[in-house]
Structure formats: structure tokens, C-alpha cells
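The instructor's notes for this session suggest beginning with a concrete chain rather than abstract definitions. Hand out the sequence below and ask the class to guess, before any prediction is shown, which regions might be ordered.
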Amino acid sequence: MSKRIFEGKIEATGMQKTVVVSVDVPKRHPIYNKPIKQTKRLLAKDNLGCEVGDFVQVEETRPFSKKVSWDVIKKLGASEE
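After discussion, reveal the predicted structure:
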């Protein structure tokens, strides 16, 4: 079974070892077939100590809690601040 992997930007770090990652998912409109950019907010487990604004790679894993089913596997870039 292949695991889904997304790249996104960290929006919030208010919880212990959990971050909110904003991911852009490309979709197509069902009638007009025009590409649409949809943004999803994923809760991910963070053991790397990332900060708000960092670009990370997240991977789908087993559920860690009721809402957390993603894991930060790689830090791609630091925040611009």
C-alpha cells in the first residue's frame, strides 16, 4: 500500500508535537474541467521541531489521535522571517 505524501507550509504550532500544515491539492471542476487549487489543512505529528512558515513534507500514517493521521518526515525549507 502506497502512502500519500504532500508538501505544504506550516500555519500553526500551538499544540505539543502537533502542527497544522496547509497543503494545495490540484483538482478539476466536474462540469467545466478547469483546474482548481483546493487548500487542505492537515494536522500532523512533528518531531523535527518545525516553526510557523516552514515548508515540510508530510506522509500519511496510522492515526495518532482522533484528528492526527499525518507525520512530518522532512523539512524542505525554513521560514522567510
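Then share the key points. The beta strands are 5-15, 18-28, 35-45, 55-60, 70-77. The chain has one domain: 5-77.
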